[in-house]
Amino acid sequence: MIPIQYRILIAVALLLALVWVSYQQGWQHTGDHVAAVQAKAKAKADQQQVKQASAVQAVAVQNASAIERTRVIYKTVTKEVVKYAQSKNALVASGV
After folding, report:
1. DSSP character for 91?
2. Domain, as residue range, for 21
């Protein structure tokens, strides 16, 4: 027969082992949960970044075309002004 002190000691050791295993499993579960949440947030951030990049690219294309249009207008106006200033009738009022 096992003395009562040894039985208590074995029961406490088993209880501590059970607590330790539960504690470790809890941390492992928490780590898995945090990793899953982080992966979901990263995927969402990547999608948002792709959307923003495409929006920025679209705006850049619009800006480039607008700049190109203003350059064409600027060049056209400059050529007409230079042409007018260099003509012989530039200083003659035309019936105004």
Report:
1. G
2. 4-83
